[in-house]
Write a structure and sequence with these properties.
Shape: globular
Organism: Alexandrium monilatum
Structural class: alpha/beta
Distance between the termini: 32 Å
Radius of gyration: 14 Å
Strand order of the largest sheet: 1-6-5
Number of strands: 7
Largest sheet: 3 strands, mixed
InterPro entries: SET_dom_sf
Order of helices and strands: HEEEHEEEEHH
Oligomer: single chain
Protein name: SET domain-containing protein
């Protein structure tokens, strides 16, 4: 069932959303789009992001599209990095996250 999003999503490889974007979870109820869930899909450009224990971006899946959200301002020419952890894991201090 997880593969049902792969074929339609390969065309939507990158969606940039503002830092701290809110999504409407119910009529009149908004939450930050920073949750984590396990998702299976083919997002080629997202795979080009470097891994970092102190990433400058995070990946957010809304049920159909994968978005890249900046966690801090990026300098011109700076590499885009993400973590293997979800955003909840990123809330831990840096040292406990390192193996």
């Amino acid at each position: 069932d997880a593969w049902r999003h792969v074929v339609p999503n390969w065309r939507r490889l990158l969606v940039a959303v503002p830092q701290g974007q809110q999504t409407e979870t119910a009529p009149g109820s908004f939450e930050l789009a920073l949750g984590h869930t396990s998702v299976c899909g083919l997002w080629v450009l997202m795979a080009l992001c470097e891994h970092s224990c102190g990433p400058n971006c995070a990946l957010v899946h809304d049920g159909s599209s994968l978005s890249l959200v900046t966690l801090r301002p990026l300098a011109r020419g700076e590499h885009v990095s993400t973590a293997y952890l979800g955003l909840h894991g990123l809330c831990l201090p840096l040292e406990p996250r390192r193996p």
